[in-house]
Design a protein that fits this description.
Number of domains: 1
Order of helices and strands: HEHHEHHEHEHEHEEHEHEHEHH
Organism: Endozoicomonas lisbonensis
Bound molecules: the ligand O=c1ccn([C@@H]2O[C@H](COP(=O)(O)O)[C@@H](O)[C@H]2O)c(=O)[nH]1
Largest sheet: 8 strands, parallel
Pathway: Pyrimidine metabolism; UMP biosynthesis via de novo pathway; UMP from orotate: step 2/2
Strand order of the largest sheet: 2-1-10-9-8-5-4-3
EC number: 4.1.1.23
Distance between the termini: 26 Å
Helix content: 40-55%
Pfam family, one: OMPdecase
CATH architecture: Alpha-Beta Barrel
CATH superfamily: Aldolase class I
CATH class: Alpha Beta
Shape: globular
CATH topology: TIM Barrel
Protein name: Orotidine 5'-phosphate decarboxylase
Oligomer: single chain
């Protein structure tokens, strides 16, 4: 099934636009998990088991695995989701971007080595660096457009003629690069005005929207600015706000409660 169809099916099955980010920081794990051999995978397993019926996607962030040599546990995590909850797509957040021959390898890494359903990439180097990803027609390619971090505006809101850079990216992605209809955009929840503008530019395109929870984005403004004409079109990510909602032996229940709260807040404004 194509990534966008997977997302749509999961949104409808679980009545949820929430994506749980799997950003493991072992020092934040409860003590009894820290002691385990494969603590990253074990932690993720608890979080996934506790939230699988509340989400439309999972998003492991690659640096959190690479930084501690835990690539094997990233793979185990993705395989665990696929084996146990095959209806829930996995977005590998690795923000890759390089010349075509290297991008070929990054695409192979994301889609063939890890078996991700979608990957985040940096569009800064142009179409020849994006095509190695979009060539995988059933997979999703999610381009950074207007990111959630405080410094983003200094670059992404630069004027190019009469447009902002993020508007150029959104328009180019939609009009010129999306011939396989598998491109999506990352648009931060911390900037609802830009989110609204990007929605105007791109019609019903799907966005990955990080920035709620730990980064303080406003749920109401995000949902009202981001929804498409079907009342969908946003994959709302929260990582730390959900997976570190508790830090004792009840951490998985705390994550579940946080995911329910976010799902319900989002649905309130749909
Ligand atoms: O613009 C962006 C793009 C990606 N991210 C990633 O999303 C999560 C957010 O984590 P929280 O704990 O919910 O803040 C993290 O993996 C980022 O690398 C982003 O925040 N903003």
């Amino acid at each position: 099934m194509r990534f966008l169809d997977q997302v749509r099916a999961a949104v409808r099955k679980n009545n949820s636009l929430v994506c749980v980010g799997l950003d493991p920081l072992p020092e934040k794990f409860p003590a009894h998990i820290q002691e385990l051999d494969q603590s990253v995978f074990e932690f993720n397993k608890y979080i996934i088991d506790a939230t699988h019926d509340l989400v439309c996607a999972y998003k492991p962030q690659a640096a959190h695995y690479h930084a501690r040599g835990a690539e094997d546990q990233l793979l185990m995590t993705i395989e665990y989701i696929k084996d146990n909850y095959p209806d829930i797509p996995v977005i590998l957040d690795s923000k890759r971007g390089d010349i075509g021959s290297t991008a070929d390898q990054y695409a192979k890494e994301a889609f063939e080595r890890y078996g991700a359903d979608a990957v985040t990439i940096n569009p800064y180097m142009g179409i020849d660096t994006v095509e190695p990803f979009t060539r995988y027609e059933d997979k999703g390619t999610i381009l950074l457009c207007r990111t959630s971090n405080p410094g983003a505006g200094a670059i992404q809101n630069l004027k190019i003629g009469d447009q902002f850079l993020y508007e150029v990216i959104a328009e180019t992605a939609m009009k010129d690069w999306n011939s396989n209809n598998n491109i999506m955009l990352v648009v931060g929840a911390t900037n609802p005005d830009e989110l609204k503008r990007i929605r105007e530019i791109t019609g019903d395109m799907t966005f990955l929207v990080p920035g709620l929870g730990a980064q303080g984005g406003d749920v109401e403004a995000t949902v009202k600015s981001g929804l498409n004409s079907a009342g969908e079109g946003i994959i709302v990510n929260s990582s730390r706000g959900i997976i570190y909602a508790g830090n004792d032996e009840n951490f998985a229940e705390a994550a579940r409660a946080a995911a329910i709260e976010l799902r319900d807040q989002v649905n309130q404004y749909r």
